[in-house]
Amino acid sequence: MSVDVYLNFNGNCREAAEFYAEVFGTEKPQIMTFGEAPPNPEYPLPEEAKNLVMHTRLHIDGSNVMFSDVFPGMPFIAGNNISLAIVNKDEERIRSYFHKLKEGGTVNMELQETFWSKCYGSLKDKFGIEWQLSYDSEALRDEH
């Protein structure tokens, strides 16, 4: 069993999922829109919701990360209540992910040696999602 992460976006989920697929070298996301869901006559779908992402998923370094847009009119707060941590024993992969994710984002802590890792950094990406990237020579997850 693993804990999967679910991220909500405010209309730019498709762009975010495609960006993350490119950063992490995963398959292109399979996207289900609200318009593709079976219609419910009691709740007609607003036109602006039809192309929004109801669900998509990426497999990133051994974890499933799921994404959706919030339904129009639902409250939305950009990424301030979650951070995603990537711990990997491939230092070059950590460096590559960090440099791609920081494009258009804000670095909280540049990649550097800390007491827990010889290569650790944190940032908020251009979609407002917080990331922590850490090299660990004995990381349990050794995918790819």
UniProtKB/TrEMBL annotation:
<protein>
    <submittedName>
        <fullName>PhnB protein</fullName>
    </submittedName>
</protein>
<dbReference type="Pfam" id="PF06983">
    <property type="entry name" value="3-dmu-9_3-mt"/>
</dbReference>
<dbReference type="InterPro" id="IPR028973">
    <property type="entry name" value="PhnB-like"/>
</dbReference>
<dbReference type="InterPro" id="IPR029068">
    <property type="entry name" value="Glyas_Bleomycin-R_OHBP_Dase"/>
</dbReference>
<feature type="domain" description="PhnB-like">
    <location>
        <begin position="6"/>
        <end position="133"/>
    </location>
</feature>
